[in-house]
Amino acid sequence: KAGLFTYDPGFSSTASCESKITYIDGDEGVLLYRGYPIEDLVAHGDFLETCYLLLYGELPTVRQKHDFDYRVTHHTMVHEQMARFYQGFRRDSHPMAVMVGSVGAMSAFYHDSTDIADPHQRTLASIRMIAKMPTIAAMAYKYTTGQPFVYPKNDLDYASNFLRMCFSVPFEEYKVDPVLSRAMDRILILHADNEQGASSSTVRLAGSSGANPFACIAAGVACLWGPAHGGANEAALKMLAEIGKPDRIPEFLARAKDPDDPFRLMGFGHRVYKSYDPRAKLMRDICREVLTATRSDDRLFDVALELEQAAARDDYFTEKKLFPNLDFYSGLTLRAMGFPPAMFTAVFALARTAGWIAQWTEMIADPSQKIGRPRQLYTGHTRRDYVDMKRRV
Ligand code: SDX
Known about the structure:
Layout (H helix, E strand, L loop, with lengths): L5 E2 L7 E2 L5 E4 L4 E4 L2 E2 H7 L2 H10 L5 H12 L6 H7 L8 H15 L9 H27 L12 H10 L10 H13 L7 H10 L5 H12 L7 H12 L5 H9 L20 H16 L5 H14 L2 H5 L7 H10 L7 H21 L29
Antiparallel strand pairs: 1-2, 3-4, 4-5
């Protein structure tokens, strides 16, 4: 059943579950949201259309899209006390630390969403989550920069609203650049879901106990933060900056191949995609567009392109099926849009909330779902007798 966790040794100790939401063919580099190729959704739709599709299983009609957009837009404000909640963080906190705390705090402000047996409450929790995450993420950014919070505006689309809440300042209104808004919207679609990534499994496991949905999403934010997962976009840009120029690439490829060197190519490799991550190709194109639109002379993009090509020519990486993943080009793109590296994973979390809440809803709506209980392979001591303190050496 959807959401049921079963232990399957074939998955080498990972929990597996059934879902109708996202399909990945890692060998062929295929990603489908409810059967629709990611390439089509990015080319023809917008992020809220993808949110609707992930949540309800079908592309919305004109009427359904209008109603959904209206409901999300009219839930983008957060409780004014949330603004005071942020004051408890140090100003130099990482935005993801602020996101973990503030998303978790939403379970206190919207506790009526805990009646998850009620489909209306589940829908309201989903709408609230998708609507408020841009505001929460923008507030985390503003708080850590010392700038005043910017309230959402209902006459802006989802991506434009987020950019404006991040970059508007009292002395200069943010001018929405349609190229950057469209790029941000497509970036959000690319990050919306990816089957049972570690953070999605975290949300499912937390949700399987019946916990408040906001608290479950906060658990997903915490898991996503790690550099092996959603934190890889920040780490990949740091790696590209350390490489600095194409002629240093061989040195770093050698380090990545050295079994005694913990260095890994950040933004490369994937547990499931054993061919090119279909999202990375789309991300590379968006990166090129944004660099052009912002007239960013980002020499690190050339380093990234050369690194990708050098690894593709190296048997070590092709035999281990290590190709760029979603995180390889996203950092370069978000930096060109004006985000500091510390905000890259917050943007990822904002987008992935759509997938997390769709997977949570799928699991909770299944009446037969049980609490998740992954098993273990015990490798410890067999039974042994207690030793009195006096006899221990
Ligand atoms: C995301 O699950 C998802 O869907 C995640 C995600 C999503 O949308 O939710 O796609 C988002 O998290 C993408 C991944 C971002 N992380 C990184 O880019 C960090 C760098 N990548 C690696 O840490 C690594 O590739 C992982 C964590 C992504 C996967 O690690 P695994 O499970 O060890 O990968 P693997 O089993 O495929 O590795 C095969 C081999 C191993 O060597 P051996 O043990 O066989 O000798 O390749 C090696 C790995 O050590 N390897 C790398 C490498 N990634 C794997 N060697 C050098 N550089 C790398 N990047």
